[in-house]
Design goal:
Shape: globular
Number of domains: 1
Radius of gyration: 17 Å
Amino acid sequence: MSQTVSSIPRPLVRTNQWFIFLAVAATWISGQAWILLLPLIAGLLGMFFDYNPVMKVAKRFLQKNHSAYIPEDKEQQNFNQLIAVSLLTLGFVGYMLNWNALALTATIMVATASFVAILGFCVGCFIRFRWQQYRYHKAHNQN
């Protein structure tokens, strides 16, 4: 029995990563924490309604058939988006409560992860892989 894996074209994932990174950078430069709400809301819409407005807009600019692009696993991207949304939420809350250490730590982490992903290494993928390995070994070593 074959199982189809749902995927997202890489240019859409990269656009979302750039959007997160640039929103965090704009927040740092301007001091306007509300800017974090843009990728946060887009991420939440994507997670809960399968509608990420950033990716929907970027999709209009794809010139080839979606299957012609390198696919990114949708489950993995949902996991990555959960991490990004969590960190963006912590960052925004930190700014709103004037907890600068929390705000900066969370936004540095999400900006670094998104930029490193743009460069080709997916931190969320590594975390998920290690978590899956841990669960597998734990389940198979209970004898």
